[in-house]
Structure formats: C-alpha cells, structure tokens
C-alpha cells in the first residue's frame, strides 16, 4: 500500500451542512446532556491555551463550572497544542514557573484529576528553543498528570478488555508545516526532522492497520481543513487524508486556528473538530466554505465517548453550549 498516495478521485471541498432548522436550535434552553450511560466517558479538549492570561483562566473556570453543573467527572483533558506561548522569563525547563502558572494552577488536580494528554503545537517548538523536549521530560516527573510519552503515541479509552475508543496522538509539526526559517529573523524554526516525520508516518500506518476500538480518534495541533485564518494544511491533507479515509478515522481533533469549528467534507468519513479557543486571542474565520459550525470565540469542547456514539459539544467561555453533534460508528453524524 502506498500510504501517501492521493485519493483516487479528487473530491471537491464541498461541505455537508445541516438545515437551518437544526442550526437554529437554542441549545441553552435545555440541559444539553442527560446522565451518562453506563460506561460512557467524559473528556474536555482545549487548544491554543498556554498564555497565562485572563482568557485562559476564564475558559478553565468555564470548564469546571460545566462539569459541576452537569455532574460530570472528566476522564481526562485533551490538550491540542500551543501549550506554552512566549519565552519563559526564567528559562523554560521542567522547573520553570510556567508549569505552575500555565498548567498546574489553572487546571488544578481538584477540578481535573485525570490524565492530561498533550500534543505539540508550533509555539511549543518556536517560542522556547528545545521546548518540545522540556514537555516530554516533564511527563516523566512522578505523579504528574501531564501525559506526553512521546511526540506521537496511542492510548485507548475505556476498559482494557473492551475499549470504547482508540486515540492516536500525532505531531503535526512536519518540516513542510512548521519548519523552514523565521520570516522576521531568518533563523531556522523548530519542527520534526525529516527522519522523525518518516518514523511517525510508518508508525501511524502500522497503528491504523492494527486492531482498534470501535471508534478511532486522531488528535494533533494543525488542522487538515479549516475555515479559520490559517486555512487548510495541504501537507497534512496529502499525507494523512488518504489514511484517515482508508482506515475510517471517525474524528480528527486539532487547534491552531483560534476559534471553534466543526467541518464535514463531502465523501469523507472523518469529522473535523477544531477547538482552538483555549486562551490565545481569537481570529475571524476567513472562508465562505459552508460548515455545520464555526465561530471566533474563546471556549472549549466536551466529548462524551459511549459504546455506539461520540457526542461533541462546543461551549464558550461562560460554559454556554454553542454547537453539538453526534458521530456514530458507521461514520454518519447528526446535529443534536
């Protein structure tokens, strides 16, 4: 199999979208979720959050308020990259104050006791040289909730004997995506090496060919498709798109654009969920391509994983629900 070959038929990027009747539902007028079914798991996801600013703190408070209001105990947090913005004044190391004021204090164990599965964003490579290595080292500290066993890795959700979902975490900082030279200073920008990118691709193919849970979720920082200011990432579409289609990846989770989005593309099995409103300044969406939902707001995403469905809900920084949809094992989706 040539995993990097393009799709056999070039599909137009026409987006499936739901009727205005669905989109006009007032989600705030009722409880958006009932009690979790037996064995269902609740997770929260955020991307582009690591600023230590007021917006990051407001989103974190909204996450906790949502959990308290719904009686949810989150299984884990999914951290979609750009975990740390700007250079650490004390030098970025495993002992830097940034771990306390950007992660530990804002997402305290008392509120979010589960593992925090993280992937690397472009700012994690660029803002603190070697910062990606520091994040990997911090994950080795005894007792930490910060989970980053490698730049790319896999974990399963649910009972080991009968998992609900397989999560594949990737590093989207390919040389063609995040490498090259800084436009202002002309210095080389950090990214995966060509060798690492090849190793990750080989690993990804093997994981997708292996036995997996009923649902497969892939998470990384950069989007394949986005209506936000950065737009689509052609290198990821070319390399990962055919694999996601062939191996029936149910959802791709990412950030990078500072907004919340849900995209469905004609003929594609995968739902594309962008949650980049965790704290960095939001940016206007810059595309007229139709999609079920998109808005330049601070916020987070709740994911409920059950045996036969994934339920995604985008919420703003006051914990107000904005958009919700259900993804089923057969690839179908429904706005709820």
CATH homology-level superfamily: Metallo-dependent phosphatases
CATH topology descriptor = Purple Acid Phosphatase, chain A, domain 2
Uncertain stretches: 1-32
The ordered H/E elements are: HEHEHEHHEEEHHEHEEEEEEEE
Strand element count: 15
CATH architecture: 4-Layer Sandwich
Helix percent reads: 10-25%
Approximate shape: globular
Query: How many structural domains can be distinguished in the coordinates?
Result: 1
> Which structural class do the helices and strands define?
alpha/beta
Compute the separation of the termini in Å: 38 Å
Average residue pLDDT:
90
Q: Main sheet: which strands, in order across?
A: 4-3-2-1-12-13-14-15
For the largest beta-sheet, the strand count, sense and barrel status come to: 8 strands, mixed
CATH level 1 name: Alpha Beta
* DSSP helical segment count: 8
Percent range for β-strand residues: 15-25%
Write the layout of secondary structure elements.
Blueprint: H1 20-23, E1 41-46, H2 54-70, E2 76-79, H3 98-104, E3 116-118, H4 122-126, H5 131-138, E4 146-147, E5 153-157, E6 165-169, H6 175-178, H7 194-209, E7 215-219, H8 234-246, E8 251-254, E9 260-263, E10 271-275, E11 293-295, E12 299-305, E13 309-316, E14 321-328, E15 333-335
Parallel strand pairs: 1-2, 2-3, 3-4, 6-7, 7-8, 8-10
Antiparallel strand pairs: 1-12, 5-6, 9-10, 9-11, 12-13, 13-14, 14-15
